[in-house]
């Protein structure tokens, strides 16, 4: 991260629709946000939203993709994951049973983010999570 940023910066990454790409997206996010106080939360959100795109949409098909965008200003990180659609229902928060292995991704993203927006339709949706760095002396995003 450039400590002399005077304007927002935006990075984009197109990820093929395979599970290994979520790991690559996390690493890419970690590299860009190196030293930022929200880096760990951003990594986790990228993992959850990327996994959701692969699991619940056409992004997880053999030729599918998902797009990851990071927007960074001095205190704010916006993480957007755009899928290829294919699911008629909008993503929603669900209560997973303690023994379930799935069903917590959006809940985790909502808990970490200051704001979560979902836009689009069954032809492709973008989920954007906004993190805000703490004021001096605070410890979490």
Report on this model:
With 141 residues, this protein is α+β, with helices and mostly antiparallel strands. 28% of the residues lie in helices and 28% in strands. The protein is built from three helices and five strands.
**Strand arrangement in the largest pleated sheet:** 1-2-3-5-4
Oligomer: single chain
The helix-and-strand class reads alpha+beta
- What is Rg? 15 Å
* Tally of helical runs: 3
Helix content: 25-40%
In short:
The chain is an alpha+beta fold.
Name some characteristics of this structure.
141 residues, alpha+beta, 5-stranded antiparallel beta sheet, 3 helices, 5 strands
Which helices and strands occur, and which strands form pairs?
Elements: E1 9-16, H1 20-32, H2 39-56, E2 65-72, E3 76-82, H3 105-112, E4 115-121, E5 124-132
């Amino acid at each position: 991260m450039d400590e002399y940023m005077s304007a927002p910066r935006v990075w984009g990454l197109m990820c093929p629709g395979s599970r290994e790409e979520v790991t690559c997206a996390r690493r890419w996010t970690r590299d860009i946000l190196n030293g930022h106080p929200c880096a760990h939360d951003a990594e986790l959100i990228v993992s959850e939203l990327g996994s959701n795109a692969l699991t619940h949409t056409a992004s997880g098909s053999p030729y599918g993709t998902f797009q990851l965008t990071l927007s960074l200003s001095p205190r704010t990180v916006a993480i957007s994951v755009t899928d290829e659609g294919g699911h008629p229902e909008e993503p929603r928060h669900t209560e997973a049973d303690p023994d379930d292995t799935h069903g917590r991704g959006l809940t985790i993203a909502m808990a970490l983010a200051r704001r979560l927006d979902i836009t689009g339709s069954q032809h492709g949706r973008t989920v954007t999570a906004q993190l805000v760095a703490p004021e001096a002396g605070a410890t979490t995003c």
